[in-house]
Amino acid sequence: GRGGGARKKVYKRPTSCFGKLAEALSVRDFFVRAPRFKRRERSMRFLRGWMPWVVLMSNVVALGCVLSPPFIQMETEDMVRMGHTLRELSELVSEIQYYDEVLTSSARLCALTGDLRWMSRYLINVGHIDSAINGVVSRIEEVQKKYPQMTERFGGVNIAEFFSRHDRCCQPEAD
Question: Mind telling me which residue stretches traverse the membrane in this protein (predicted)?
Fold first, then answer.
C-alpha cells in the first residue's frame, strides 16, 4: 500500500533533440575548448615570467612622469629669462639706433648751420647712447656666460665681430 516509503527518482538520459545537442556540445568542448585552456595556460605562464618586468617598466615610466615637470619648469624659466633679456637687448638696440640718428643729424646740422644749439643737443644725447651701448654690452656678456650656444649671432650681427669693432671704436688711439 500506501506505506510510506520515499520514491526514488530515476534520471533518464535525454533522448530528445536537445539532449543530442548537449552531447554534441560536450564533444565539441573536449576537442575545441581544451586546446584553448592549454593556450590560456601557456599565456599565463608567459605573463608570469614577464609581469615583474612589465610592472618595473611601468613604474619607471610613472616615476619619469612624476619627476619630469620640475625639470621642464626649470628649463622653461630659463627660456623665459632668456626671452626677457633678448627683449631688453632689442629695446636697447632700438634706442641705440634712435640716438645714432639724433646724434648724426645734430652733428650734420651743427656743421651745416654753425648754430651752437645743435652742438648742445648733440652733447646732451651722447650720454644716452653711451649708456645704451654699455647696457647692450653688459647684457650680451651675461647672455654669453649663461647661454654660449645661443649667442653666436644676435639680430643678424656676429657678436664677436661686434665686440671687436666696439673695442676698436672705444679704445683711445695711441700716438
Answer: 50-72
Contact 123, 136 (CB under 8 A): no
SS (H, E, C) 34-75: HHHHHHHHHHHHHHHHHHHHHHHHHHHHHHHHHHHHHHHHHH
| Bigger pLDDT: 15 vs 66 | 66
Kindly state the DSSP code that residue 152 receives in the 8-state scheme: S
| Interval 69-126: pLDDT, tens | 888 888 888 778 888 888 888 898 899 999 999 999 999 999 999 888 999 999 998 9
CATH 1.20.58: does it fit domain 75-175?
Answer: yes
3-state secondary structure 100-150: HHHHHHHHHHHHHHCCHHHHHHHHHHHHHHHHHHHHHHHHHHHHHHHCHHH
Is-above-0.85 flag for pTM? no
Residues 109 and 115: beta-carbon distance below 8 Å: yes
Residue 57 CB neighbour total at 10 angstroms: 10
H or E stretch including 157?
strand 157-158
Range with the poorest average pLDDT among 38-47, 95-104, 137-146: 38-47
How many other CB atoms are there within 10 angstroms of residue 166's CB atom? 14
CA distance 153 to 151: 5
